[in-house]
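Private note to self, pasted from the team thread so I don't lose it. Backbone tokens:
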């Protein structure tokens, strides 16, 4: 083998190795888009069955519409668990009136533990009652059911956020916000906290989880 042929062979091997490495670390195909992967568990103020949804609040949310309507699990038409268009909102306020919405997937909702799995997360921004300019979403791992009014409850571990607050005024429908390995935490939680410019509607719609 001459020098040129040897060099071409080495380059081919390097390129093959890089391709294998990229394939091993790539996200599932659906996770790169804004629609949840088929079979993702959907939770929300509008969903029967599936993951759990709740609030920690000193104020009462207002019912609205414009949320995801479809099956839970997402895209599985044989499921009897359905989500309607119902959502809810509160008016934002800077005078220490606070509210936190919570979406759970894992043991807290009666499903299996997500410990040791990678969880991918999508948000559905409603088309009604959602006009906050800077909605703060966070993703947590926990081994507690989040029933405490402490924000965040003891035992919660912050995993990630989308890297920016979400402008609900210019965004609607499903958006993909990221993924994280759960480690030893059996539950994954998304929170949305009412802290934004005053006199805006901050809306809570559905969240979808796909833990693999």
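Design output:
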């Amino acid at each position: 083998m001459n020098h040129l042929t040897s060099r071409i062979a080495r380059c081919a091997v390097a390129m093959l190795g890089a391709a294998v490495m990229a394939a091993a670390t790539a996200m599932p195909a659906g996770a790169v888009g804004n629609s949840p992967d088929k079979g993702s568990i959907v939770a929300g103020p509008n969903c029967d069955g599936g993951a759990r949804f709740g609030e920690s609040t000193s104020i009462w949310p207002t019912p609205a519409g414009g949320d995801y309507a479809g099956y839970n699990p997402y895209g599985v038409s044989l499921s009897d668990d359905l989500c309607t268009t119902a959502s809810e909102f509160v008016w934002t306020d800077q005078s220490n009136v606070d509210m936190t919405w919570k979406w759970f997937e894992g043991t807290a909702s009666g499903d299996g533990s997500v410990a040791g799995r990678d969880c991918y997360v999508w948000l559905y921004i409603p088309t009604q009652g959602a006009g906050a300019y800077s909605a703060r979403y966070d993703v947590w791992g926990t081994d507690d059911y989040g029933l405490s009014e402490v924000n965040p409850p003891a035992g919660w571990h912050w995993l990630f956020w989308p890297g920016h607050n979400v402008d609900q005024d210019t965004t609607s429908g499903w958006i993909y916000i990221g993924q994280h390995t759960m480690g030893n935490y059996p539950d994954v939680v998304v929170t949305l906290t009412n802290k934004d410019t005053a006199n805006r509607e901050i809306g809570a719609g559905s969240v979808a989880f796909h833990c693999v």
